[in-house]
Specification:
single chain, alpha+beta, Lipocalin, 3 domains, 8-stranded antiparallel beta barrel, 19 helices, globular, SLH_dom, AmpC-like, Beta-lactam/transpept-like, signal, Penicillin-binding protein
Length: about 700
């Protein structure tokens, strides 16, 4: 399970990273982004994988300078042809005690690797005829109701392959903590109270779906008549001799649990969840135990005299059921595609499962045709696996990293390419946005991490990124228009959905200077898509609305609270957002218990609110040399300097000949300028701007990432 405060996402926009960091500080938890994809590796002469070479590879890998900072303790097992080739621990299970990692006994939270085991349980019941993959899953959950406006029901297979079409439902920060240790909270009650509606046609799109696997675990429990954790122990763990694996945090499992560390190195106290048993991510295990599972799975489901699956079932779990292109498979029953290797794509010959908690990360990958399995787990969330996987493949099985061979392909015409153009927002987190444009017969893509780059067409719906050398693919609807995109950098575990064609507003025509910003937000659903409505572009934005709009476009939801820190916000739609903003230090109020939510906000006030969040990413000293003109109050100067340096403003603000910028700091913030701010928070590659600024030693105004005609 990918557990972060805003849900696990491979890449967050810089603004969202900064906002998340504020949440982390408030909750004493940490989140981190999925690491960048593996470096380019090519097909070279392989090393034979045996006990000696496996051990040597591990020792060499874990002593690399770039690897050492990425783990506190790590445990790894490599199996081949039914034998353990290497099983080793590195680092410590706990920094305070210095206890070394023991691959046989040190327990790790394997997070979403749990899903593989939940899928095994489901497939056992499929073998027994108690579950059918093409059945409506609600058949097995009597009394459950779900809003599904589509003719197609959600099937068991849809749940297994992350193609349910559900609205996002993830475990949230307040569903985990030390306060849950020792308590028993049931899956059934949690599931019924959190049931998502179906918002996309089932079976048509890929969104990493924790809730789907919670439901699968609940179905296993109801169909088998046994508590899920009991079923797993009796029918999976015990037959394989996995005595150190459980979905419950108790007994020797708890005693041997490694201390978890955030990506920033902060040790976390032992915690548990609501619900207590998490089929989607609550399994605890050791490298040795996972090695036993891999041996059995690669042996057709059998280990010695025990069998957990029929050989035919294992083969069915190895087959990709969802893909956007042959070079970019998505999911099998219980597994997902490996990391893309530049120029090669993601091999359909390899099945994997990644897992993340706030303080643990894991990676399991199998190469069935080689009878090889590898499991890596470590007690510090982060990118260790992103380095491990390509190095292992390059060393032992470089054929899976061979560059894809494309026959001479004639790229499509500009008119044909235009069907791909638009704004795409990640299904799981709308704040992850890519802008795709057609110009002069080629596509460009831009996002808040890598900025703009060219996409070269190599197949009808497949493009190679000129910068990363990785593939991006599009899914077409029945009319031949792009409706989804799979892009490997922001989120390899799901699709981005293309926004609707914006209708505009009656008072914002296509030639309006702020139209591109406003239309993008309208395309992605942040504004009503009704061309008869008025936008009032020059009207002022209130303090309360600004806080709500900025946080909502960042993918944040805020619930009504029984009490508020300000006396003048209760009953307002913005009140929950203002309270959240206060909790993370984004707003402070007037010092007399009031926030004045209905007062129009000035541009410099808005800048200060944003700076309080960005300060965790970018210290104000970075912007000291930014030249300002016009009038800015002293208390807002550093915030306005940051806004100017990062290009967080609209087209009416232009640098003067001497490089100085008049931010119009004391002017009211208008609807149109707020739209430009929200646009740039989502799409401006601010990390690159900061790097360029630091490398150049100059602090100059950045040009806003001007919206184009992507929509």
């Amino acid at each position: 399970m990918e557990l972060n405060l805003l849900s696990h996402l491979p890449k967050l926009s810089t603004w969202t990273k900064a906002f998340t960091a504020s949440l982390v500080a408030a909750a004493a938890l940490s989140t981190s982004a999925f690491a960048a994809s593996p470096e380019t590796t090519g097909a070279g002469k392989p090393v034979e994988l045996n006990a000696s070479s496996a051990a040597a590879f591990l020792d060499q890998f874990f002593t690399q300078d770039e690897v050492k900072p990425l783990y506190v303790g790590a445990s790894v097992v490599i199996v081949k042809d039914g034998q353990v080739l290497a099983e080793k621990g590195y680092g410590v299970a706990d920094q305070t005690s210095g206890k070394p990692v023991d691959p046989a006994s040190t327990e790790f939270r394997v997070a979403s690797v749990s899903k593989t085991f939940t899928a095994v349980a489901v497939m056992q019941l499929v073998e027994q005829g108690k579950i059918k993959l093409d059945d409506n899953y609600l058949t097995y959950l009597p009394g459950y109701k779900q809003d599904n406006p589509f003719d197609q029901p959600v099937t068991i297979e849809d749940l297994l392959t992350h193609t349910s079409g559900f609205e996002v439902r993830d475990i949230q920060a307040d569903d985990m903590g030390p306060n849950y240790v020792g308590k028993r909270l049931e899956m059934d009650a949690y599931a019924q109270s959190h049931m998502p509606p179906v918002v996309r046609e089932p079976g048509t799109s890929y969104m990493y779906d924790n809730f789907a696997y919670l439901l699968l675990g609940l179905i296993v429990q109801k169909v088998s008549g046994e508590p899920f954790e009991t079923y797993m122990t009796k029918h999976v763990f015990q037959p394989l001799g996995m005595a150190n694996s459980s979905f419950l945090l108790d007994g020797h499992i708890k005693d041997n649990l490694a201390t978890g560390y955030t990506a920033a190195g902060q040790a976390l106290p032992v915690y548990d969840f609501n619900p207590t048993v998490l089929p989607q991510g609550g399994m605890l295990s050791t490298a040795e135990d996972i090695g036993k599972f891999m041996i059995a799975f690669l042996n057709g489901g059998a280990s010695g005299s025990s069998r957990i699956l029929a050989d035919q079932t294992v083969q069915s779990m190895e087959q990709y059921r969802s893909s956007i292109h042959p070079l970019l498979p998505n999911t099998t029953y219980g597994f997902e595609a490996p990391f893309q290797i530049p120029g090669a794509g993601a091999s359909s010959k390899i099945i994997t499962k990644a897992g993340d908690m706030t303080d643990f990360s894991s990676y399991l990958f199998l190469i069935p045709e080689q009878h090889v399995g590898v499991f890596l787990t470590y007690n510090k969330q982060g990118a260790l696996r992103n380095l491990f996987y390509p190095q292992f493949i390059s060393a032992f099985y470089p054929q899976y990293a061979a560059q894809a061979d494309f026959p001479a392909y004639k790229p499509q015409s500009a008119d044909e390419l235009d069907r791909f153009a638009g704004y795409y927002a990640d299904i799981r987190a709308k704040v992850l946005v890519s802008a795709v444009n057609e110009g002069q017969g080629e596509l460009t893509i831009s996002d808040s991490y890598l900025g703009p780059r060219t996409l070269h067409q190599v197949d009808d719906n497949l493009f190679i990124d000129d910068l990363t050398k990785q593939f991006t693919a599009f899914q077409l609807d029945k009319d031949g228009k792009a409706n989804y995109m799979k892009e490997p950098y922001l989120n390899p575990l799901g699709y981005e959905k293309k926004g609707d064609d914006p209708a505009g507003f009656a008072d914002v025509g296509e030639d309006h200077p702020y139209a591109p910003y406003i239309y993008m937000l309208q395309s992605l659903g942040h504004y009503p898509n009704d061309g008869t409505q008025l936008f009032h572009p020059e009207a002022g934005v209130t303090r309360g609305d600004f806080v709500q709009h900025v946080l909502a476009t960042s993918g944040v939801t805020a619930a009504e609270q029984p009490q508020y820190s300000f006396t003048d916000i209760k009953g307002l739609p913005s009140a929950p957002y203002i309270q959240l903003a206060f909790a993370i230090g984004m707003v402070k109020g007037d010092g007399q218990g009031k926030f004045h939510p209905e007062q129009v906000i000035t541009r410099q006030e808005a800048a200060v609110m944003l700076q309080r969040v960005f300060a965790l990413q970018y210290p104000s000293i970075i912007f000291n040399d930014v030249k300002l003109s016009g009038t800015t109050d002293a208390w807002a100067v550093s915030a306005v300097q940051m806004m100017v340096a990062l290009g967080i403003y609209g087209p009416e603000i232009q640098p003067a000949a001497d490089g100085s910028v008049d931010f119009h700091s004391k002017a009211a913030l208008s609807n149109e300028e707020e739209a430009a701010i929200m646009y740039t928070l989502i799409l401006q590659p601010t990390d690159q701007l900061i790097a360029n600024l630091q490398n150049s030693g100059k602090s100059e105004a950045a040009a806003p990432n001007a919206a184009s005609d992507a929509a």
